[in-house]
């Protein structure tokens, strides 16, 4: 019976078949040890010359790192083994034995070398743990929306309307239509969908030609965006803190072993629950100035500013009411002070930076036209978006959560590039 390593404990005393790859192996005259990995874990296989055929023992000795193989044997309880079990082999069947050394076989390869071999690096234990945490984050996101009555709307990748700043767009030639762009966000489409379905979300890749190299920016990254009709900014803040707390809890409940393996300080994650602290942009500027930052009211924050703000709190912190001019065209002005908008950035603790950008959206037709002009955007590309303000316009709000930023924070990764299977960065699109 074919079983996976993670399920071996349920099969103690039974004869099983394992399919996988050689993690490490060593042998002497009478005994061979194979550490077999199958994507769900690693188990030690013991091959004794005295209890297998000569063929099987010779096969076991021939194996080298990352050979593929099938093993048949008995599951034995073994307290000293990781996972508490080992396999006593009856048969070892090599499927393919590499002719060269596996390229990743040292503890000290450079990050460039590892990224050049990303297709093989994925087989490492560390990457296996990170990808399991990524999977848990994505499952947690979907489950949250499922439980809260949201409909998933898949927004397009090709778009004619700019959703964020014009500075980091990818242009594509699109048949007779001319220039279109890869989506920086699906927000505008979600706004249309929330007027049809009420509570909607998306989950998928977005693209930004980020020219700066930071440990928080990818060129292709995943976003989860949500948009809700009739939500004002206060409702939006609550939705964000509930979502983020839910994701963290879901990962703690379903992927704790992977967090432990990465030596993540779990106690920090256990503190993440609503409500999250809030400060206004104006208060944040004062705080930064007091700490010696050279920042003026009106500037957007970069990574260093965000890290300093986050230091004051154990939980993610909402920075609210940014200056209108520092943010995108679609944000609703604060009725009490039209120089700032009803928006927030959610900054993760421990220096992981902005994980969410959010706002209430402008729902007044004339005000939106005014803003499009102020931002020098082509009104005709937004005809359909303006229609949403002509037919039953209502206040509505939403946000975009950076999936890899969230993973980097939860898993405690130094750099965002490990949070996605095949990262696209300024200087890398291969493999
Ligand atoms: P930043 O200020 O860090 O550049 P942003 O304000 O430009 O981010 P938004 O337009 O608010 O980003 O996008 C929503 C979320 O998407 C961000 O809060 C962040 O978590 C994530 N994000 C934005 N740009 C990137 C990127 N280049 N790589 C990875 N995640 C990103
Ligand atoms: Mg940016
Ligand atoms: Mg930002
Ligand atoms: Mg933002």
From TrEMBL:
GO biological process, one term: asparaginyl-tRNA aminoacylation
Xref: Gene3D superfamilies: Bira Bifunctional Protein, Domain 2, Nucleic acid-binding proteins
Record bears the keyword 4Fe-4S: no
Entry keyword set: Aminoacyl-tRNA synthetase, ATP-binding, Cytoplasm, Ligase, Nucleotide-binding, Protein biosynthesis
GO cellular component, one term: cytoplasm
Subunit architecture: Homodimer.
Family, per entry: Belongs to the class-II aminoacyl-tRNA synthetase family.
PANTHER family found in the cross-reference section: ASPARAGINE--TRNA LIGASE, MITOCHONDRIAL-RELATED, ASPARTYL/LYSYL-TRNA SYNTHETASE
Name of the protein: Asparagine--tRNA ligase
Organism name: Thermosipho atlanticus DSM 15807
Gene from which this protein is expressed: asnS
């Amino acid at each position: 019976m074919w079983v996976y390593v993670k399920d071996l404990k349920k099969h103690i005393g039974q004869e099983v078949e394992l399919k996988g790859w050689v993690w490490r192996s060593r042998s002497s005259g009478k005994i061979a040890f194979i550490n077999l990995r199958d994507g769900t874990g690693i188990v030690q296989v013991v091959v004794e010359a005295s209890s297998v055929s000569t063929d099987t023992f010779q096969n076991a000795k021939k194996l080298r790192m990352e050979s593929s193989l099938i093993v048949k044997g008995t599951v034995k309880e073994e307290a000293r083994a990781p996972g508490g079990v080992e396999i006593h082999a009856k048969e070892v069947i090599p499927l393919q034995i590499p002719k060269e050394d596996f390229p990743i076989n040292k503890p000290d390869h450079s990050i460039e070398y590892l990224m050049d071999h990303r297709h093989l690096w994925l087989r490492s234990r560390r990457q296996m743990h990170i990808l399991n945490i990524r999977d848990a984050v994505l499952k947690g996101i979907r489950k949250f929306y499922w439980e809260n009555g949201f409909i998933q709307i898949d927004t397009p990748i090709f778009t004619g309307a700019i959703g964020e700043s014009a500075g980091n767009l990818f242009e594509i030639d699109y048949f007779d239509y001319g220039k279109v762009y890869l989506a920086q966000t699906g927000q505008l489409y979600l706004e249309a969908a929330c007027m049809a379905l009420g509570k909607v979300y998306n989950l998928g890749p977005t693209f930004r030609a980020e020219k700066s190299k930071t440990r928080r920016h990818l060129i292709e990254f995943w976003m989860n965006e949500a948009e809700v009709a009739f939500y004002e900014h206060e409702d939006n803040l609550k939705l964000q803190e509930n979502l983020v707390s839910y994701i963290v809890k879901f990962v703690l409940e379903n992927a704790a072993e992977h967090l432990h393996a990465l030596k993540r300080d779990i106690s920090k994650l256990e503190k993440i629950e609503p409500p999250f602290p809030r400060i206004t942009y104006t208060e944040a500027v004062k705080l930064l100035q007091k700490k010696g930052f050279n920042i003026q009211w009106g500037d957007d924050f970069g990574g260093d500013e965000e890290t300093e703000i986050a230091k004051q709190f154990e939980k993610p912190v909402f920075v609210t009411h940014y200056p209108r001019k520092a943010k995108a065209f679609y944000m609703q002005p604060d009725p009490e002070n039209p120089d700032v908008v009803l928006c927030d950035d959610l900054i993760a603790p421990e220096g992981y930076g902005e994980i969410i950008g959010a706002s209430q959206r402008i729902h007044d037709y004339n005000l939106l036209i005014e803003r499009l002009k102020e931002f020098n955007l082509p009104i005709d590309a937004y005809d359909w978006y303006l229609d949403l303000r002509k037919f039953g316009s209502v206040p509505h709000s939403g946000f975009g959560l950076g999936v890899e930023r969230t993973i980097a924070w939860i898993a405690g990764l130094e750099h965002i590039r490990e949070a996605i299977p095949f990262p696209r960065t300024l200087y890398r699109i291969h493999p």
